[in-house]
Write the structure tokens for this entry.
Amino acid sequence: VYSRQFLRPPRSTCQLAAMSDDEMPMAGGDMPMNDDEGSDMEGFQAPPLLPEGITKDIVTAAADSEWKQPKNGDEVTVHYVGTLAQDGFEFDSSRSRGQPFVFTLGKGQVIKGWDLGVATMKKGEVAKFTLAPEFAYGEAGSPPKIPANATLVFEVELIGWSSKDDLFGDDGVIKTILTEGSGWKKPKAGDEVLLSLKAVAADGSEIEERGEFEYALGSEALGPIAKAASKALESMKKGETAEIKCSKEYAYGDKHPDGATVTLSLREIYETSDVSFSKDGSVQKKLVKAGEGYDSPKDGAKVKLSVISATDGTTAIDGLKVGTLEFAAEDGEVCDALECAVVEMKKGERAVLTITKPELIREQKLGLQDVKADKVVLTVELEEFEKGKDTWSMSEDEKLEWAVSRKDRGSELLKAGRLAMALRRYKKVVDSFGYLDDMQEENKAKAKALKLACEANTVVVHLKLKDFVAAKAACNSVLKEDKQNIKALYRRAQAELGLKNFLECIGDCKKVVELDSQNKEARALLRQAQLAQREEDKKAKGLFANMCKAFGRGPGPSPDKRPRLEGAEDGAAAADEAGPTEQADAGAAQVSTERAPMEESA
């Protein structure tokens, strides 16, 4: 009785107890300590400052491991003893009653000094708060035990609290954390998670219960509770169990008019990434079991990859040969889908691959050489791999030997039509020789030649992929080192033609012919570019003529009212007398005759 009487704000000072969110300093956060997945500083704020009129003395500090503080909306549990500052008279004590006091922080359920003071405490802490009258019972006091304008002293122990969040700001869904999660990752809309749930009505009767199942945040798979569940999951971490108390609008509607309480347990957060070589979403990797450490297989490393299952999304694919594949990473020994996925995996990692281009998963070793499904969903696990040597740790001779093997393998893949993998081989050589100044002169010359050869080969791949911008850029890199490289000039001309830069194409073709007058390919490309440019000129001429005709048909003064210039020649007068259409045609003809022939303009 005394607890409710003396801690509830007096009626005459209720306005002091309620503070807006802007006025109320916030505390809290959910930073894990010594977490394998890293520290989480998200939500951490400095302890709230107490205003003048509230003093705090710590009697017993919280344990070093307790750093969190409650926030507004949390349900806190405390023990306290209240006395008058003037004579030490004890007017209330939860300890005397042997029952802790529970209230919701920051909601004006207690005097203002309590809302502000308890927000600065940590679990297990005991503090003494001295509250001026304006933060207690003010001018009225609380007779007969608390006189007017009384300064009060409270010794408070924070036993603990239940973290509560109003998810939509309308009291429709209140989330309470029952078991803390670990790590720092939280799912977002569209992410897939593994969870379990149980929903009960207000009278305690069970509505539904589901064991572990996969769910995509934002989907309608959970029916009427989907919105509330998705919102709650966005704030949860792996291993967390939370309870959401939902009004009927966020739960089962009139079927359960008093609302429902849903318990969610988040077991896994599935991280999905695009691992396709072309980054076009054709190979998506969903991590379902985390691997060990940070290392992934390097180029050429021996790996053991277990293939567990294959479906078209719903039905198992016939003919699948499950088992363990052993191969060298990125050497093209298996299909592209497996090649691009394995270099993004860690030892012991299990993943689900979703492949939307059948040609990427056609693999004879798996019995999938004739797969025709529009989508293949493959479950794989990386059993182990050999940790290869990093290029930066190689000697110069080792690096050159490695580069030669990568270049040769790239050429084999290029001939086999595996363009994306060939491109990666060439690019790795180019990138590894980005800085050559520290190499011995003999090795520097070899490295430079290898780099130029691989850059030239990347152009071939880009042209086959019709990536003309990248092809042009690669040619420019080669020509920066060798301005008269005939292959680079010719291939740049091909790229310019693909980009419809016909004049630039003509210019490069002429340079090739100057260097090699018998180059038939360059001469053929030159003629093709000249014809294309002539077509462009015709289109431009027609457009200009149409514009002139359109202008000529516009309203204007009649011929007899147009001013005549003194001394105008007969030719000008004749032109003046000509109709607008004839003038436009004459102008267009003049533009056409003044243009230089195509061969000369290049």
